[in-house]
Design a protein that fits this description.
It contains 10 helices and 14 strands. With 325 residues, it is α+β, with helices and mostly antiparallel strands. It binds adenosine-5'-triphosphate (ATP).
């Protein structure tokens, strides 16, 4: 992928053939540059046919991200957001954290067609293919300090689930602390990063990676069971309207969170937790693990586990939950 790849792909969105000459003319580059821009996209999950005498065509049409379309789907609420749509960036969270440091306001959103270093928690990679994912970050400022924001990733999970359900996707569930599952497989991931003093106001950068249609080469890079919206719900997904729906649900949830903290989401989160009442194993930062039955979440978003007759709370960004063997 190079800097002409997305501009050239946008000209192919409809799935019809376009000649290299036309693409070159429209982009103001040479035909060799077009050829370079559109080659070897298989790893990014995109098939581009090149047929002598006819030009280039996408194997399947793609609705590329489009700022105007997202804004129009947001309707009057578009004023809540300051949206940037990028072709490629290192990581939308990395970029937005930098903007947060320069005073970006609540509602700033960065969405990118491609991330060169998409991240999960603890520096784990987040993989996505061209045209088949939503990877975006939303900035939100809170009057409260960072301590108040524990449990935010769980509330974000609730917001995403609400939005997906409203779009007709059934069977979406959450996994403590930051995963969205469908059919037990990972459909979306959440990465929250914070900036603040302990007591003063704080800012959260809420990163979301959602699989819309996972192409095989992308799926093969993911080292756990993953799924996508195309498998979870009928029909084709328009990522622009979907992004608008997710942003509206997130903004509403952030306003709710500012008023109630995680406690206001607790019951709903428990009802949506895939492991509620189930036996799980927690992998701890020191390499150890603990097994118990999930009782629910505490008001701060800690996982409450019944371990050998006693209730224990676990609250850490470095704990991973797995089904008990
Ligand atoms: P935890 O259970 O602790 O949240 P996790 O393995 O889900 O652990 P995260 O940091 O939440 O870790 O997410 C990163 C992980 O998600 C990667 O290590 C990879 O296993 C998985 N992953 C990466 N890209 C995708 C994707 N597009 N869809 C589903 N899963 C992915």
């Amino acid at each position: 992928m190079n800097r002409y790849t997305l501009p050239a792909l946008r000209l192919l969105s409809g799935g019809e053939f376009r000649s290299g000459e036309e693409i070159a003319r429209r982009l103001g580059v040479t035909r060799a540059s077009v050829s370079n821009a559109l080659k070897d996209l298989g790893e990014a999950g995109l098939k581009v046919f090149k047929v002598r005498g006819r030009g280039y065509r996408l194997a399947e049409p793609v609705a590329w991200l489009d700022r105007d379309q997202v804004l129009s789907a947001l309707g009057p609420k578009a004023r809540l957001f300051d949206l940037a749509v990028l072709d490629e960036t290192e990581s939308t969270n990395t970029l937005l954290m930098a903007e947060a440091g320069h005073g970006a306001a609540s509602g700033r959103v960065i969405v990118a067609e491609a991330q060169t270093h998409g991240r999960g928690r603890l520096g784990r990679p987040w993989h996505s293919g061209l045209g088949g994912a939503l990877t975006f970050s939303l900035l939100w400022r809170f009057d409260q300090g960072v301590g108040f924001l524990s449990g935010l990733s769980l509330a974000v999970g609730v917001a995403l689930t609400r939005a997906l359900e409203a779009q007709g996707v059934t069977g979406v569930a959450l996994k403590w602390p930051n995963d969205v599952l469908h059919d037990g497989k990972k459909l979306a991931g959440i990465l929250i990063e914070l900036q603040a003093d302990m007591l003063g106001p704080s800012v959260a950068v809420i990163g979301v990676g959602l699989n819309v249609k996972l192409a095989k080469p992308v799926r093969s890079r993911i080292d756990q069971a993953a799924t996508d919206l195309s498998s979870a719900g009928a029909g084709r997904w328009d990522r622009n309207t979907l992004l608008a729906a997710l942003l509206l649900a997130l903004a509403e949830a952030m306003q709710e969170f500012a008023a109630t903290g995680f406690n206001g989401f607790r019951k709903e989160w428990e009802s949506r937790h895939a492991y509620q009442g189930k036996r799980v194993r927690l992998e701890l930062p020191d390499g150890g693990s603990v097994e118990g039955v999930v009782k629910g979440a505490s008001a701060e978003g800690a996982l409450v586990l019944a371990v050998g007759g006693a209730e224990r709370k676990f609250l850490s960004g470095e704990i991973s939950l797995r089904a008990a063997r």
